[in-house]
Amino acid sequence: MKNILKLAFLFVALSAMVVSCKNKVDGDAAGVGEAGDVAAAMGDAYTTDATRAKIMWEGSKPTGKHNGTVNISEGTLYVKDGAVTGGSFTIDMNSIIVSDLQGEWKDKLEAHLKGTANEGKTDFFNVTQYPTGKFEITKITGLTDDSNANALVYGNLTLLDVTKEVSFKATISVSENTVVVNTPPFTINRTDWGIKYGSKTFFDNLKDNVIDDNIGLTINLEATKPAM
User: Could you state, in order of their start, the residue ranges of all structural domains in the chain?
Assistant: First the structure.
């Protein structure tokens, strides 16, 4: 009987761990620090193709996850001697899309994230006051013996007029006319940019209304060299 009870207890504990893990955002945490010096523009300019530049996001709370996209509206990468030396990108915060919902619930969550609903304007991204975000490369270093990436990208990320330097892994492919950048999933802590709504770090007794501080991100973009 004791053995049966032990097995039952172990099963319940494991089940709880599995459910908990399912509601956590996946990905390595990005390094975060104070804003750094932006890399000088050196080499040829490659212009971002807005139709092939997108950020995938994921957020979670105890009752589940939501995911979607936000567009990179414009950007430039600089390439010298076959390597990216710098660049900057504008993030269109009005383009936030929720991909896993439909209809009324999709519209409500998108409005809440953008701050365009009747209430909660400053809960998240307040796009009326801050319609764009920005990412400016400070440096790029090479990675070896990593199956998921060949570079470590450092850059200043500005959201809600707050700028922090972040670092994350990426695979960067440079050809004569094209630069392709893809990242494995990584996370940033939204509270570093002052987004505290629903955070258990700052509020008690939220229960199921708590929202994970970490936002999962994946970046895919392509930039091309203008024809001469």
Answer: 25-224
Give residue-wise pLDDT tens across range 9-43.
Answer: 333 333 333 333 345 677 899 999 999 999 999 99
In CATH, which superfamily holds the domain spanning 25-224?
Answer: Lipid/polyisoprenoid-binding, YceI-like (2.40.128.110)
Structure tokens at 153: 């990208």
Tens of pLDDT along 75-122? 999 999 999 999 999 999 999 999 999 999 999 999 999 999 999 999
Q: What is the pTM of this model?
A: 0.86
> Strand 186-189 to strand 28-29: parallel, antiparallel, or no bridges (unpaired)?
parallel
Which residues have C-beta within 8 Å of that of residue 55, sequence separation ≥ 6?
A: 69, 70, 71, 72, 91, 217, 218, 219
Burial of residue 32 (CB within 10 Å: 0-12, 13-18, 19+) is middle
